[in-house]
Specification:
Helix 4 (114-129) packs across helix 5. Strands 1-2-3-4-5-6-8-7 form an eight-stranded mixed beta sheet, with helices on both faces. The chain is globular and about 35 Å long. It has a domain at 11-133: Aminopeptidase (3-Layer(aba) Sandwich). The two termini are 22 Å apart. The chain is built from five helices and eight strands, in the order ββαααβββαβαββ. Helices cover 30% and strands 35% of the residues.
């Protein structure tokens, strides 16, 4: 299994670059996370302040990466550098060979297949280069957009976990699905 690295590997797809968050991303992250849908379906702070975007870029992403516990990418369009969203892989506590994935997409970038494209690249990296044996996707019940992405990537639905996922102090029902190395196309 790969050791913790100080620099996050950059992933590229036909239309996207997935790279470590940069100081120059703060304004775009702050703007994207004002979206009610991102706030509804993720654990971003509400209200989302500029300081939260700064913390994401300056502290959360680099410290998680340095510890080898969490790998966070900003997803940007090739050519324009416009922020599409974010993707993350977090090693599971107690089982470092398994990880959880998460993503959000800026409102104006939805419906273009970007999140599926990025999630495939992240899954391939995590299950091959990082050497994880399992990735799991969790989403609050009702998050049909995230579920559609997970299904298109190849995650297999495993069920509903009742009162499982914490969102700002409230435990909500969550869907769970998994992807294994053998599931990669």
């Amino acid at each position: 299994m790969e050791e913790a690295r100080s620099e996050l590997v950059t992933l590229t797809t036909d239309r996207l670059v997935l790279r470590a968050p940069r100081e120059s991303d703060v304004d775009a992250i702050f703007a994207a996370c004002q979206d009610e849908e991102i706030q509804r379906w993720t654990v971003v702070p509400v209200p989302y302040r500029r300081e939260d975007a700064e913390f994401f870029v300056r502290t959360l992403a680099p410290e998680g990466r340095a510890a080898g516990a969490e790998f966070i990418w900003c997803v940007v369009e090739r050519g324009t550098g416009r922020l599409v969203g974010a993707q993350a892989v977090t090693r599971q506590a107690g089982d470092p060979a398994a990880g959880s994935v998460g993503w959000w997409t800026a409102k104006e970038q939805r419906g273009r297949g970007y999140t599926v494209e990025a999630a495939r690249a992240v899954a391939r990296w995590a299950l091959t280069d990082l050497g994880l044996r399992r990735l799991q996707w969790l989403a609050y019940v009702g998050n049909e957009g995230s579920r559609a992405v997970a299904e298109r990537v190849g995650y297999r639905h495993e069920g509903t976990l009742r009162s499982y996922a914490d969102q700002r102090g409230v435990f909500r029902d969550a869907w769970i699905a998994s992807l294994l190395p053998a599931d990669l196309d």
